[in-house]
């Protein structure tokens, strides 16, 4: 049913592009490495019989017609990474979708529905602090204002698109209509499947990431000449807030909150920090609880700022709504898991995925594959070949069921 040797070879080859010294991967949107990765994946798409094109933001789209004029079955994921990321996050979903289309073709199975496989642009948001550029464009929700977001060198998304040599067309040309559904294979990036002794899982819903940037501004002064009770130390203030973020998140059991980036200015040994900037990534499958946690954190930051004569600025970087996966697609996935002799485990996704951008557009479903030790966003990210083969078989069977 699936040529797992070919799929494993594709995963290995793609993982070599953007490789870091410690075996991780740096592959950020609109860079030469990502361009080379797209070119490799485009070859795999063509070998599978897909017609390849790039859309206005650089989504790599492989298409095939159906035997009937029906809505499109959409598959895919992303091939960009977090800094020093793993070889399976995103890439597994794109390559597995291509392998399933390739296998169906080899077995002479012509689907009724047209199919598109997409490697979505910039799912991670690593370069511009604003993720899922590609899937937003496909959903028709990416705005020209969004394209003004800048990377750390001051390059906007719009400039990066132009530098990438992509044909300039209106953003609206990227929107895909007439889509039946979207199904994504992705590594779990958590420990649930492993603890349930399950190779694959059916995703019930996806927690929505809310990204905020906090800035505390105090006064940079001499570390030796400034008495302790006369300081406006931005880093001490930030530290109090950051420690409280963890305590508050634990209060809301299903929520998670992470401070992933921290910038201290002027960052000198003998200078009281005058300015500190940090990010908070807040998630919950329940949007109301996420909003409560957001407000708790903001209010505490304001209290600390007032007590310490610091100025606080909070900027929203992205706010993605949680999404429930479609019941019919979940049933097709569960039946397929049973048919390959695996026990069915259904679970929510703590990680965000391109699928969540399609909440208002068409039904979505996701198939998770077990992550060793639940590790991801890390060079140690690993998923066993036999688990990948099972996930590919589940996707194969799910597509055949959805095609009826
Ligand atoms: O942040 C996430 O959840 C995903 O890896 N982009
Ligand atoms: Mn990721
Ligand atoms: Mn991912
Ligand atoms: Mn994803």
How far the N terminus sits from the C terminus, by CA atoms, comes to 19 Å
Main beta sheet, described?
9 strands, mixed
Oligomer: single chain
| Ligand kinds | (2S)-amino(hydroxy)ethanoic acid, manganese (II) ion
| Beta-strand residue percentage | 15-25%
- Fourth-level CATH superfamily of the largest domain: Zn peptidases
The sequence of SSEs as H and E is HHEEEHEHHEHEEHEEEHEEHEEH
Q: Residue-averaged pLDDT, rounded? A: 96
Count of discrete domains: 2
Tell me roughly what share of residues is in helical segments. Answer: 25-40%
Binding site for Zn(2+) 2: 89, 124, 377
Binding site for Zn(2+) 1: 78, 89, 186
InterPro entries: Amidase_Cbmase, ArgE/DapE_CS, Bact_exopeptidase_dim_dom, Peptidase_M20, Peptidase_M20_dimer
Organism: Paenibacillus uliginis N3/975
Would you give an account of this structure?
Its cofactor is Zn(2+). This is Allantoate deiminase. It comes from Paenibacillus uliginis N3/975. Zn(2+) 1 binds at residues 78, 89, 186. Belongs to the peptidase M20 family. The chain is an alpha/beta fold and 404 residues long. It folds into 2 domains: 4-206 and 322-403, Zn peptidases (Aminopeptidase), CATH 3.40.630; 208-319, Alpha-Beta Plaits, CATH 3.30.70. The chain is 33% helix and 21% strand. The chain has 10 helices and 14 strands. The chain has helices at 4-15, 32-47, 91-106, 133-139, 157-163, 192-195, 234-251, 287-307, 327-339, 385-402; strands at 51-54, 60-64, 72-78, 115-120, 179-187, 200-206, 208-217, 256-258, 262-265, 275-284, 311-319, 323-324, 346-349, 364-369. Strands 1, 2, 3, 4, 5, 6, 12, 13 and 14 form a 9-stranded mixed sheet that branches. Strands 7, 8, 9, 10 and 11 form a 5-stranded antiparallel sheet that branches. Strand 3, helix 3 and strand 4 form a beta-alpha-beta unit. It is globular. It starts with a helix and ends with a helix. The mean pLDDT is 96. The protein binds (2S)-amino(hydroxy)ethanoic acid (HGY) and manganese (II) ion (MN) (3 copies). Residues 77-78, 90, 123, 186, 353-354 line the site of one manganese (II) ion.
């Amino acid at each position: 049913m699936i040529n797992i040797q070919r799929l494993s070879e594709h995963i290995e080859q793609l993982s070599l592009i953007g490789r870091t010294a410690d075996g991780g991967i740096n592959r950020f949107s609109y860079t030469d490495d990502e361009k080379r990765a797209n070119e490799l994946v485009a070859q795999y798409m063509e070998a599978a019989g897909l017609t390849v094109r790039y859309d206005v933001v650089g989504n790599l789209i492989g298409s095939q017609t159906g035997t009937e004029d029906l809505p499109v079955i959409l598959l895919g994921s992303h091939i960009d990474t977090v800094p020093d990321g793993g070889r399976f996050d995103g890439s597994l979903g794109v390559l597995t979708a291509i392998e399933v289309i390739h296998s169906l073709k080899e077995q002479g199975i012509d689907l009724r529905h047209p199919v598109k496989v997409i490697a979505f642009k910039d799912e991670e948001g690593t370069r511009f602090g604003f993720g899922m550029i590609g899937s937003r464009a496909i959903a028709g929700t990416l705005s020209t204002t969004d394209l003004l977001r800048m990377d750390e060198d001051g390059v906007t998304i719009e400039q990066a698109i132009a530098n990438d040599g992509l044909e300039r067309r209106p953003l609206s040309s990227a929107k895909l209509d007439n889509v039946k559904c979207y199904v994504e294979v992705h590594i779990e990036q958590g420990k649930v499947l492993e603890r349930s002794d399950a190779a694959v899982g059916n995703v019930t819903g996806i927690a929505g990431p809310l990204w905020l940037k906090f800035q505390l501004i105090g006064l940079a002064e001499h570390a030796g000449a400034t008495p302790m009770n006369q300081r406006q130390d931005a880093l001490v203030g930030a530290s109090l807030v950051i420690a409280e973020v963890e305590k508050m998140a634990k209060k809301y059991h299903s929520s998670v909150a992470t401070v992933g980036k921290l910038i201290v200015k002027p960052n000198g040994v003998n200078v009281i920090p005058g300015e500190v900037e940090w990010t908070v990534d807040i998630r919950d499958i329940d949007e109301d609880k996420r909003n409560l946690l957001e407000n708790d954190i903001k209010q505490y930051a304001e209290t600390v700022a007032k007590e310490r004569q610091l100025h606080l600025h909070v900027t929203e970087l992205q706010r993605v709504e949680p999404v429930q996966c479609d019941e019919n697609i979940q049933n097709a996935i569960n039946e397929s898991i049973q048919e390959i002799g695996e026990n069915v485990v259904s679970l929510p996704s703590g990680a965000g995925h391109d699928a969540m951008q399609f909440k208002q557009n068409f039904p979505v479903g996701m198939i998770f594959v077990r992550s060793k030790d639940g590790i991801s966003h890390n060079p140690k990210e690993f998923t066993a070949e036999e688990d990948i083969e099972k996930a590919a078989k589940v996707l194969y069977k799910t597509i055949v069921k959805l095609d009826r």
